[in-house]
Amino acid sequence: MSTRPTKDQLAAAHNATIPDVIAPGLDVLFCGINPGLYSGALGQHFARPGNRFWPALHAGGFTPRRYTPGEQYELLDLKLGITNVVARTTARADELSDDELREGGKVLVAKVLEYRPRWLAVVGIGAYRTAFGFPKAHVGPQDHRIGDTRVWVLPNPSGLNAHWTPAGLAAEFGQLRAASDHCRNR
To answer: Where does the record place the Uracil-DNA glycosylase-like domain (predicted)?
Structure first.
C-alpha cells in the first residue's frame, strides 16, 4: 500500500480495527482515543501526517530518534506499546458515543490487567474522563490505578489540538518519561 491512502482506501477503513502494539511487562502502554481512518487504511497507529504523537514521543525522551508509524512494532524493543480506548476507526473522535468510550474503558482495564504495563498513558483528557468516570481528571499522573499499573493522562497529540504546542507536548511526554524511569530504577 502506498504511504498515502486513496479516498477509496479511507472510505473502506471506516469501522476497521488495527492490531495493538502490546506485550507483557511494558514500561508504558500508550492509549489513543481511537484510530482515525488514515491509521485504519495503513494499519498503523497515529499515522496521519500532522499527528504529533511520534515527534512528542521522541522529544519526550522515549525514543532515540523520531520513529515513523511504520516502525510502530520497534517500540516493543523499548518496552513501549500502543492501544486505544475504542478499537474501531472513525473520521473524528467525536463520532464515538459516551457509552462506547465507557465500554472501551472496560476493555482497556481488562487488557491492562492482562499485560500489566508499569504505566498506562491515555492521550486525550476528555476520553479518559468519560471512559473511566473521572470528570475532574487533569493532564498528568492520576490517583487511579488499574491493578499495579499507574495511570498518566497526556494531551491529545492530534494536530487539531492546537491548544498544545509541540514544546508543551514534549514537556508532558518528558515528565512521564522521567516518572517511568524512576519507577524502573526502584
So the answer is: 19-177
**Gap between the Cα atoms of 73 and 88, Å rounded:** 20
pLDDT band at 183 (very low <50, low <70, confident <90, very high): low
Q: Please list the active-site residues.
A: 34, 45
Specify whether the CB–CB gap between 130 and 33 falls below 8 A. no
Do 131 and 85 contact (CB within 8 A), yes or no?
A: yes
Any idea where the domains of the chain sit in the sequence?
7-184
pLDDT tens for 149-177 read: 999 999 987 756 667 888 999 999 999 99
Let me know: does 155 contact 172? Beta carbons within 8 Å.
yes
Residues 6 or more apart in contact with residue 77 via CB below 8 angstroms: none
How much helix, strand and coil, in percent to the nearest 5, is found in the chain?
A: 40, 15, 40
**Cell triple for 37:** 481512518
- Which of these, 40, 69, 28, lies nearest to 182 by C-alpha position? 28
pLDDT tens digits, 42-60: 999 999 988 899 999 999 9
